[in-house]
């Protein structure tokens, strides 16, 4: 299976926003848009990424949160329209929310993300799914995609997240299900679970229970954890705790970033799973509106293991 990974789209749609809708945390977000973000993120780049993924024959697409900027209904509607352009989207896409999708208490309370993307939250193992929609499980070929929600409505200047205790407990039970035993297990969550040299794992941006979540997933022998939030390409490896093997923790970066150096430019990843193992990670980089995305880097893991064994 070939799995496409995009994230942090930050779709902007504020033409019909009323002034009083900025009388909350959106005041800071709106200022950020005026100064920087509205010039950095482009929905056109997202559309080019989806065109590229279609040409590269991916079987499934994961979107790891922050589809919107300010959690406005207009932004959710615009993001949903873009995602519907994916062929057979309702069965080929797994989506989780990010902190920007829960930007205000109202957005979280009203379940705006869940209302606009309810078709993608339908679980193949509904007995483990809580009323609010998580965790969900999509069984596709020999792969299981498990979606977790780390989104929180936070105070000004904070972008922290947390996976709720009852949700993590249900995910743990789900991962013990016999129907997942022989499958390659992918967990999707917005916030990073660990840090590296490029990650911003700051006090006001972290996943509050990152250690607990990561330990649980390693104990349950999750093969691949996909996240967003930092806008940096990252491939980390940690040992599984329940059996021999490796848990990969990966971020592609922000797919919608327009321009900039290769570190920050828009990216998406493709993960190739063969015979129950991660064989390759390909990263594609946005170059320009004329040329679109191009191959940027590739890591072939099975070949490396064979070379070490030889």
UniProtKB/TrEMBL annotation:
Domain Calcineurin-like phosphoesterase per the UniProt entry, residue ranges: 1-232
InterPro entries: Calcineurin-like_PHP, CNP_phosphodiesterase-III, Metallo-depent_PP-like
UniProt KW Transport keyword: no
Domain of life where this protein originates: Bacteria
Keyword entries, A-Z: Hydrolase, Iron, Metal-binding
GO molecular function list: hydrolase activity; metal ion binding
Name under which the protein is recorded: Metallophosphoesterase
Organism of origin: Lujinxingia vulgaris
């Amino acid at each position: 299976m070939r799995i496409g990974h995009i994230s942090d789209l930050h779709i902007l749609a504020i033409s019909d926003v009323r002034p009083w809708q900025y009388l909350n945390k959106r005041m800071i977000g709106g200022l950020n848009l005026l100064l920087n973000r509205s010039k950095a993120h482009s929905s056109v780049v997202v559309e080019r990424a989806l065109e590229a993924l279609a040409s590269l024959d991916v079987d499934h697409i994961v979107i790891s949160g922050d589809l919107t900027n300010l959690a406005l209904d207009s932004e959710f509607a615009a993001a949903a329209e873009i995602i519907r352009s994916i062929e057979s989207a309702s069965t080929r896409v797994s989506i989780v929310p990010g902190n920007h999708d829960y930007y205000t208490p109202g957005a979280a309370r009203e379940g705006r993300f869940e209302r606009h993307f309810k078709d993608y939250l339908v679980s193949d193992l509904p007995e483990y799914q809580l009323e609010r929609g998580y965790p969900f499980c999509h069984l596709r070929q020999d792969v299981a995609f498990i979606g977790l929600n780390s989104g929180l409505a936070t105070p000004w200047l904070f972008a922290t997240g947390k996976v709720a205790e009852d949700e993590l407990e249900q995910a743990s039970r789900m991962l013990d299900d016999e129907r997942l035993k022989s499958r390659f297990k992918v967990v999707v969550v917005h916030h990073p679970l660990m840090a590296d040299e490029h990650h911003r794992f700051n006090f006001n941006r972290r996943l509050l229970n990152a250690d607990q979540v990561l330990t649980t997933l390693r104990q349950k022998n999750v093969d691949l954890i996909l996240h967003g939030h930092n806008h940096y390409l990252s491939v980390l490896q940690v040992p599984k705790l329940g059996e021999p093997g490796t848990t990969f923790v990966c971020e592609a970066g922000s797919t919608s970033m327009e321009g900039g150096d290769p570190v920050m430019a828009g990216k998406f990843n493709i993960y190739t799973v063969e015979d129950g193992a991660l064989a390759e990670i390909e990263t594609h980089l946005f170059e320009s509106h004329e040329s679109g995305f191009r191959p940027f880097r590739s890591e072939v893991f099975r070949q490396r293991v064979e070379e070490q064994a030889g």
